[in-house]
Design brief:
By secondary structure, the chain is an all-alpha fold. Helices cover 59% and strands 0% of the residues. The chain has a domain of 34 residues. The protein is built from three helices and no strands.
């Protein structure tokens, strides 16, 4: 997994540290949850499998919802 560095202000860092301790999880798990929530909020896939599924659905022509008579 590639590592990335981010900068957050001290107040936010303290709040995140406290939240992680309260939930008994580490910062890595906390950040993974936050990024997954952000991706879902913007209708983006959160896994490779979901991304592949979404890309194949976009290639298919849309079916009409109207019924034929």
């Amino acid at each position: 997994m590639p590592g990335k560095r981010i900068q957050v202000d001290e107040e936010t860092w303290q709040a995140l540290t406290l939240l992680a301790k309260d939930r008994k999880i580490n910062f890595q798990k906390l950040s993974e949850e936050a990024f997954a929530d952000l991706l879902r909020k913007h209708d983006r896939p959160t896994t490779l499998k979901a991304a592949l599924r979404q890309s194949t659905n976009e290639d298919r022509p849309r079916r009409s919802t109207k019924r034929r008579k």
